[in-house]
Specification:
The protein has a single domain, classed as Orthogonal Bundle (Hypothetical protein af1432). It has helices at residues 4-12, 21-36, 44-53, 63-67, 79-99, 104-114, 126-137, 142-151, 156-165, 167-170, 174-198. It is globular, with a radius of gyration of 17 Å. By secondary structure, the chain is mainly alpha-helical. Bound molecules: fe (ii) ion. Fe (ii) ion is lined by residues 24, 54-55, 135.
Length: 199
């Protein structure tokens, strides 16, 4: 049976085909679901739509400009781009969710989360913390490393060093922290095995 999240997924998906969102969003969605199993007090009806919709504001922004929304970008970081994609994303998420008559108080919470998912370094709530962690956890996965290392002009091994050094700063939930370490260890093993095979 189709769930409300399948419906939101289908609404959000057309906006993902930029900045590898079509890889990032499904993986972060799965990571959010995994985190939710550890936090029964969190509200999946806020967390899941928020993760599916958090980056839709990148849609339609020129690729060159988008890359400046990433800290460590070789072209220099532009905090305005971060804010623009957050604000557009929050607005569009509100419109998409209203079109399926989603509860207005939930839409507001989802919009608040999207509106600060990169620029706000602290979490407003447990729901917000889970969305932030699920977003960043993708960078530790195999596909995340393969894709993101180029964004900041680093080779995969130094990129893994970099994200590894950021775990305590980025992860806002205890389970997010644990998961970041285990996912990164698996990704490192993969690169190690690949290097062994090539020898
Ligand atoms: Fe993201």
């Amino acid at each position: 049976m189709e769930t409300i999240y399948d419906q939101i997924y289908a609404l959000a998906e057309p906006y993902w085909h930029t900045r590898s969102g079509e890889v990032h969003m499904p993986e972060s969605y799965a990571l959010a679901q995994q985190l939710l199993t550890h936090y029964p007090a969190a509200d999946e009806s806020v967390v899941l739509p928020a993760i599916l919709l958090h980056d839709i504001g990148y849609f339609g922004l020129p690729t060159e400009t988008q890359m400046q929304g990433i800290a460590g970008s070789p072209n220099g970081w532009d905090g305005d781009i971060t804010r623009i994609h957050e604000q557009r994303g929050a607005q569009w998420a509100g419109e998409l969710l209203s079109s399926i008559n989603y509860a207005p108080h939930k839409i507001r919470e989802i919009q608040q989360i999207i509106d600060g998912h990169d620029s706000r370094t602290f979490a407003l709530s447990l729901n917000d913390a889970i969305v932030k962690d699920a977003d960043k956890l993708w960078r530790f996965t195999l596909s995340g490393v393969r894709i993101c290392h180029r964004w900041v002009n680093k080779q995969p091994i130094p990129f893994m060093e970099y994200v590894g050094s950021k775990i305590d700063e980025w992860m806002l939930t205890e389970q997010g922290n644990i998961l970041a370490r285990s996912i990164l260890a698996a990704t490192r093993r993969h690169y190690q095995e690949q290097a062994d095979d090539e020898r």
